[in-house]
Amino acid sequence: MAMTLNEVQDEIIREFEVFDDWLDRYDYLIELSKDLPPLEEKYKTNEYLINGCQSRVWLTARYEDGRVLFQAETDAIITKGIIALLMRVLSGRTPGEILQTDLYFIDAIGLRQNLSPTRSNGLLSMVKQMKMYALAFQAKDTMDK
């Protein structure tokens, strides 16, 4: 059975607790970034670019069987690890789950505190964009009924 949103967040927190310092955590983020599948070229346009990120981050989503599936790519390695974590928590969830969730793992692993202000803003922009997709799919669902 699939893990709940919070179970996935708790798992991420446990993974990061292994590392004592932030350099090791950054290394782990870089490792995670390697799991992110490449994004199709057709999505690497301004239309899919997230505003507010220092690095270029492209995010797209599709709606399948009541679940939102995200795809993303970025040209920055740490950011790629961050988006990989966000997708691990949010991708494959219903719009309602995405909109109602509290992404507590971000603070629990010290991510927000250890990012530069521009990266931290980028993180918030990524979360906001993911929630915007969820909101759009939820609205479309409501209109289709």
Protein described:
The chain has a two-stranded antiparallel ribbon with strand order 1-2. The two termini are 29 Å apart. A hairpin with a 2-residue loop joins strand 1 (57-64) and strand 2. Helix 1 runs antiparallel to helix 3, helix 2 crosses helix 3 (77-90) and helix 3 packs parallel to helix 7 (117-144). The protein has 145 residues and is mainly α. It has a single domain, classed as Sufe protein. Chain: A. It has helices at 5-17, 22-33, 77-90, 95-100, 105-108, 111-114, 117-144, and strands at 57-64, 67-74. It is built from seven helices and two strands.
Would you identify the CATH architecture? Alpha-Beta Complex
Number of strands: 2
User: Residue ranges: pLDDT <50 for 5 or more in a row?
Assistant: none
- Helical residue percent band: 55-70%
CATH fold group: Sufe protein. Chain: A
Mean pLDDT level: 92
Beta-strand level of the residues, as a percent range? 5-15%
From the N-terminal CA to the C-terminal CA, the straight-line distance is: 29 Å
Shape descriptor reads globular
**What is the SS-derived class?**
mainly alpha
What is the string of helix and strand elements?
HHEEHHHHH
Top CATH class:
Alpha Beta
* Count of individual domains: 1
Q: Taking strands numbered 1, 2, ... along the chain, how are they ordered across the largest sheet?
A: 1-2
Radius of gyration: 15 Å
Largest sheet report: 2 strands, antiparallel
Number of helical runs?
Answer: 7
Relevant terms:
Sufe protein. Chain: A, two-stranded antiparallel sheet, 2 strands, 145 residues, globular, mainly alpha, 7 helices
